[in-house]
Design a protein that fits this description.
Pfam families: MFS_1. This protein has 514 residues and is mostly helical. The protein has helices at residues 2-13, 15-32, 39-46, 50-71, 78-98, 105-134, 138-160, 175-182, 186-191, 193-198, 219-230, 232-243, 260-267, 291-295, 305-337, 345-348, 350-370, 375-395, 400-415, 417-428, 435-461, 464-490, 499-512.
Length: 514
Amino acid sequence: MGCDGRVSGLLRRNLQPTLTYWSVFFSFGLCIAFLGPTLLDLRCQTHSSLPQISWVFFSQQLCLLLGSALGGVFKRTLAQSLWALFTSSLAISLVFAVIPFCRDVKVLASVMALAGLAMGCIDTVANMQLVRMYQKDSAVFLQVLHFFVGFGALLSPLIADPFLSEANCLPANSTANATSRSHLFHVSRVLGQHHVEAKPWSNQTFPGPPPKDGAGTRVSYAFWIMALINLPVPMAVLMLLSKERLLTCCPQRRPLLLSADELALETQPPEKEDPSSLPPKFQSHPGHEDLFSCCQRKNLRGAPYSFFAIHITAALVLFMTDGLTGAYSAFVYSYAVEKPLSVGHKVAGYLPSLFWGFITLGRLLSIPISSRMKPATMVFINVVGVVVTFLVLLIFSYNVVFLFVGTASLGLFLSSTFPSMLAYTEDSLQYKGCATTVLVTGAGVGEMVLQMLVGSIFQAQGSYSFLVCGVIFGCLAFTFYILLLFFHRMHPGLPSVPTQDRSIGMENAESYQR
């Protein structure tokens, strides 16, 4: 009861900065999920092929990693942190406003690279500032922080859906699309090969000419609406700067009088802070340094090979699962509107929202589940669930209902894979390795690489290959996880952690997941 009163008192004292940090993560979520449903419209706008526009995803994810490292430069003082958040959130609104004017895929990739840098800064700075404010009580506030990521990712496809084009504006006789149109799915590639070769593309009849310079698409309005919706976020950061007297036009801040409740909190004797209560990203043990410093540590010398094998296999599992999350969110809309499903563009636009909605729901549900289930068991269930879901989608690839049910199922299974794997790996290494650093890097690189790889295969082999890639990557994730269990069994000094401690670590890992 006293703990709840202390936490609520801290929230009352820091209400404005807390709401501000939550809001900037809404910007993060808004920017992370809009590319998937608007992919075809952006291809029309830039007159690009699927492999070409996949570089847009690559540039965003690459610069997100760079932005996360860059954000560490601005975490030293409150003024630097707030100005970084203001600039980043304003840049996201600017990106949304500029996207409709990007008629070349290289320009669009450059704009999304800017968005990735802004998202990376937000990710690092907002997490760090909340932990500095609430310290060992930060877990619950970080849970809400990352809930806003899911909320923004859920909202952006819903905003875009009414403005998506119903017809495919891409020219079916273009050189870039000749291969993909002749390989729409595996059955047509086998049965219709001679028919396609007998009729040259130039002699076929199509619904109409493609629009010039993106004409005929109304998706620009969706981006401008998102820019306006996001605009209050930098304004909120600016208000916080003003409140903290950090604007150059404001005089130095004078100390304010505290209320009776706040004064009572201030006069309480300080409690000794338990470092293990902090989320993994912010604990001071060696495992959470940057990748270069972590790999250069002298205490890694003489470590058994199983120590390095656990790091590598765990990172490969997240390389696959987080890569699947990014690739599925990016291309499920494109898969749905292609044959054999041929779902309407408006209906298909709900799939990314459904996916991110169940990811958000899964993150909330995993908190109480983690107190009753070991992280290793949760990872096993998640990975097996991903493989089974993709197999079901592959078997019933002509059924739209199974596509929606499978999308929701994938969101649930993928939602808690990262925090469960992080908790399990740190537990296996007894918090002495570089698990957090290596796993975060592996997950980020997986999102970046698999999106581009799936886009290239989708273009070359047709829509059916989208599900085949999901099955292959899911099976690889399961294989790497079995190897991880094997190396864990061989690793000396297996930890024996009480269930309650595991659940605390799981909650902290869940709060760290984006």
